[in-house]
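Kindly review both lines to help learners:
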Amino acid sequence: MSADDNAEAKHIDKMSRIKGLIFSNPVEWIHLFKVAINTFWCRYVLRCVGAGSIVGGKVNMINPSNIRIGRDCLILDQVYMRAGSDGYIHVGRDCAINSYAKIFGHGGVVIGNNAQVGPGALITTTSHDIRKAMKAEFKTVTIGDWAWVGANATVLPGITIGRYAVVGAGSIVTKDVPDFAIVVGNPGKIIGENEVAKAQHG
C-alpha cells in the first residue's frame, strides 16, 4: 500500500468513527448543537454571558440587557430568568443554575461566585400586599459565595443567604440565612452548620 493509499485509508477510518459517534446517539448530538447555538447567542448577541459559560437548551432570558452572568457558569436546560424592565439578575463566576430553575429579578437578584441553584428552585423578588389593593412590592434577593439552594426550594423576596449556606431540597426560605447555616423545611429552619466549610473558611 502506498503512502497516499495509507493516508486515505486513515481518513476514511476517522470519518467512519465520527459518523459512528454521531449516528449512535443523534438526539444527544442535536442537543449539543442547540447548546452551542444558545451559548453563542447569549454571549455574542445578547452579551449577557461571560467567557467559558455554557447555556443549555430552551433557556429563556427575559430582558437580557438586565441580566449578567459571569465566566465559567453552567446554565442548564429549561432555566427561566426574568429580570424585569427595572430589575436585574447578576450571577457571579463558576456558578451552576440547574434545569427548570426560575429566577424573577424584578426587585434584583445577586448570586455570588461558586453558588449553585438546584433543579426546579424558585427565586422570586415580587410580593403583593393585600392591604394595598394587591400592589406589587419588590425586594432584592442576595445569595452569597459558595451557597447552595437545593432542588425545588423557594427563596422569597428580600432574603439574604449567606456564604457557604445550604438550603435543603423543597425548603421555603422566609428569613435570612446566616453564613454556613443549613436550612430545611417549610418554613425553613436552621438545623445545623456546614461544618466542613466553616472549618476551612470560617
Notes: The chain has three helices and 21 strands.
